[in-house]
């Protein structure tokens, strides 16, 4: 019996360990290629243990820090500012909706809920943002479309307010003469730290990782986030390798592009903050997945 | 009546709080819904969107005459259908295994690692895939295939491999996340069931089959139906970034989302792209309603509405 369960435990561990390795190994390859010498990549391809190590790629990044540092600044700015704005807007919309006695209660709920079921799609969204609001090549393009607030989070926060903030507390504050907004800021929000932390974390990851808005609404390299720089490098390589037989300038352009190890180094710089911060927030992240699942 | 007026007055500051959020929903969600009318127009920017001529279903006629309409519909449904089946089976199995781990340290460790791929952007994923598959420098062509004595394969110019590649990438990125969702519902099962079963001498395998599995079936059914409701919407990044927007691969990698994007951004074809977008939104909406209806039949508590 014990012999049998020991055997099972080994099997469980080895399957999980196998899958865990599969999850991690591409990152190892990425990091190792960024510290490989260019020659060993060309000779042997990307590998887990290069023939020759080299810090040249990072030295190159250091020398070209102007462009990359700027992109980093853009990414940090949209992550911080976008997450803060998102939390403010989400909670400000969700709180009144959570109140039992608010006029038109069902209407507000339907208004938010319907956005989860139906959307106009990319084309009208794109045209409205570019033609009506003219956000092309502005910082708003990275902050606003699609990311700033979503109905799902609003409903999640509303449910939290409804279940975790006792209405008696709100009523007591009202009777004591506290204004509605004061009650919201001084009583409701401090009680809602867990849900705010969870949603803030998800929003921050969303902003940090976003490349879609930059690719769609931004052509000015000064506004590129780190993800957009990475995306642009791939696009250029694809373009040049598809058209290399068309022009002789293509091959000289090709040599101006960052070398393979440099590309990998930029990608490392792009994921590293997440990988470093992950051990600290993984607990909340796992909790967040669970909250989202039970809606 | 008096009390209604008083209620409105009391709530005025709260209504003010709602303004930014509501304004955003109008701009980001409701205006584009009304903007869908452009699919029925011959858009001419000199006349403005509202002033352009109505052309009825012409754009849709053009769209459905192309071979693309069939290809993108087929790809979208086949890929997402395969993802639903494979990811569900994989994630439930993974969750059951994770639940067998008793040591706190290992629980944390495995959970953290398997959701790691979910945290990174598709652009980074496309770099990781490129490091594996690049024809001149990829790990597979340079290190793995030579070991097996197989000739290098030009992955990025052979479309027949991509259904497998994209499925594997999708599993890699999404399965850990999904398994944590299922794990949450397994953990909420009352431990007394297992204690009773152990006393009766039921084996682990038997317990999984007759306790764990039946008790999480409602969650599996609900998640699957919801996923079916979204079968017309694809993970844009997966289909756009991972094949590196390569035209050669489009027959097996083009889905509705990527088709709409390319038709709009690369070709500037508003008629075709908006028609495809409306097709996606409307069919998608009908599927959500149907799947919700199915969820309701099955369990009222789990339905969205």
Automatic annotation (TrEMBL), chain A:
Pfam families: BPD_transp_1. The chain crosses the membrane at residues 12-35, 71-95, 107-127, 139-161, 187-208, 262-281. GO terms for biological process: transmembrane transport. InterPro entries: MetI-like (IPR000515), MetI-like_sf (IPR035906). Its main location: membrane. It is found in: Cell membrane. PROSITE patterns: ABC_TM1, PROKAR_LIPOPROTEIN. GO terms for cellular component: plasma membrane. Keywords: Cell membrane, Membrane, Transmembrane, Transmembrane helix, Transport. It is a multi-pass membrane protein. Residues 72-281 form the ABC transmembrane type-1 domain. The keyword Cell membrane applies. Belongs to the binding-protein-dependent transport system permease family. This is Carbohydrate ABC transporter membrane protein 2 (CUT1 family). The lineage of its organism: Bacteria, Bacillati, Bacillota, Bacilli, Bacillales.
TrEMBL record, chain B:
Keywords: Cell membrane, Membrane, Transmembrane, Transmembrane helix, Transport. One of its GO terms (biological process) is transmembrane transport. Its main location: membrane. It is a multi-pass membrane protein. Residues 73-291 form the ABC transmembrane type-1 domain. It is found in: Cell membrane. The chain crosses the membrane at residues 12-31, 77-97, 109-133, 161-184, 211-232, 277-295. Signal peptide: none annotated. InterPro entries: MetI-like, MetI-like_sf, UgpAE/MalFG_permease. The keyword Lipid biosynthesis does not apply. One of its GO terms (cellular component) is plasma membrane. PROSITE patterns: ABC_TM1 (PS50928). Belongs to the binding-protein-dependent transport system permease family. This is Carbohydrate ABC transporter membrane protein 1 (CUT1 family). It comes from Paenibacillus prosopidis. The lineage of its organism: Bacteria, Bacillati, Bacillota, Bacilli, Bacillales.
